[in-house]
Amino acid sequence: MADGGREPTNKDLMDCMNALGVRIGAMERKLGVLDNLEVKVMDFDKELKKIWLALDDRVKRTDARVMSLEELVDYADVGAAQMAEKVAMLEKQREELRDDVAYLKSQSMRNNLVFTNIQEDNSTGIETAEITETKLRNHLQEKLKIAKDIADTIRFERVYRSPGQPVSGKIRNIVAKFTFFKDREMVRREWKHLSGTGCQMFEQFPPEVVEKRRKLVPKMKDATKEGKRSWIVYDTLYVDGKPVKQ
Question: At what angle do helices 10-108 and 207-225 cross, to 10 degrees?
Answer without folding.
Answer: 80
